[in-house]
């Protein structure tokens, strides 16, 4: 029973980093505001010839596609007053691969959230105070691991050029070369230039660090408070 409890605790600790990471990625992929800010910052309307209304339509269409059961995306916008199929067959096939990763991220988020939620609930509603103290300590450890992960990625991004990291990610994430698109004619690249992904990665790092830092600070404060209370009771 003791070994089972230790395994459950470490599963909780190791679930925190992927939960925070996957939840952040999920929120970013579903943030219309993030897309709109990128379109404005990188002057995507000028690059694509699409007005703001059509760009918003494209962003909403992508978000809907990632959350749907559709195998392939079909997105028609207006360009120069004429209906225009935004993505070609190569882009559509690549978006299918991207959607698979987005849905994998969602399943990871859902699975870790369920485990973390159940474990937390059991610890909070269990009558033994020891379990609540262990929950706080485990949250502190999981938060430290998450912060360490973000610091490590930050050091790697400084040591290596973001272009290379972005390239290596694609080699690891995809088993084909459909992601090798032409920015001169493929609208998927025009909509989301590399600068957009750099900004998104920086925002993701900031959010994860903020969430993990908050959990770390709150749990550290709770641990110090528990120690003081234990000393007073002696």
Overview of this protein structure:
The chain has one domain. The relative contact order is 0.14. The chain is mainly alpha-helical and 234 residues long. The two termini are 30 Å apart. It has 9 helices and 2 strands, in the order H-H-H-H-E-E-H-H-H-H-H.
Summarize the structure.
The chain has 234 residues and is mainly alpha-helical.
Mean pLDDT: 91
Largest sheet: 2 strands, antiparallel
Total helical elements: 9
Structural class: mainly alpha
Give, in spatial order, the strands making up the sheet with the most strands. Answer: 1-2
Low-confidence stretches: none
Number of distinct beta strands = 2
The Rg value, from CA coordinates, equals 22 Å
Order of helices and strands: HHHHEEHHHHH
Q: Kindly, what is the distance between the CA atoms of the first and last residues, rounded to a whole number of angstroms?
A: 30 Å
Total domains: 1
The fraction of residues in strands falls at: under 5%
Describe the global form: elongated
Helical residues, percent: over 70%
């Amino acid at each position: 029973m003791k070994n089972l409890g230790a395994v459950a605790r470490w599963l909780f600790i190791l679930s925190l980093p992927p939960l925070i990471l996957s939840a952040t990625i999920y929120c970013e992929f579903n943030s219309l505001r993030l897309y709109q800010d990128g379109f404005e910052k990188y002057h995507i309307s000028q690059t694509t010839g699409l007005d703001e209304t059509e760009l918003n339509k494209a962003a909403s269409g992508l978000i809907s596609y990632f959350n749907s059961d559709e195998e392939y995306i079909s997105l028609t916008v207006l360009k120069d007053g004429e209906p225009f199929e935004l993505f070609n067959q190569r882009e559509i096939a690549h978006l299918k691969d991207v959607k698979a990763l987005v849905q994998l991220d969602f399943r990871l988020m859902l699975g870790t959230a369920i485990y973390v939620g159940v474990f937390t609930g059991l610890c909070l509603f269990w009558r033994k105070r020891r379990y609540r103290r262990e929950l706080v300590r485990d949250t502190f450890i999981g938060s430290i691991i998450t912060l360490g992960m973000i610091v490590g990625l930050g050091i790697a991004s400084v040591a290596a050029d973001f272009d290379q990291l972005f390239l290596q990610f694609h080699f690891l994430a995809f088993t084909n070369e459909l992601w090798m698109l032409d920015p001169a004619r493929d609208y998927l690249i025009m909509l989301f230039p590399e600068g957009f992904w750099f900004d998104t990665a920086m925002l993701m790092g900031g959010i994860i660090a903020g969430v993990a830092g908050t959990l770390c600070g709150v749990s550290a404060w709770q641990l110090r408070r528990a120690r003081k209370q234990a000393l007073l009771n002696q």
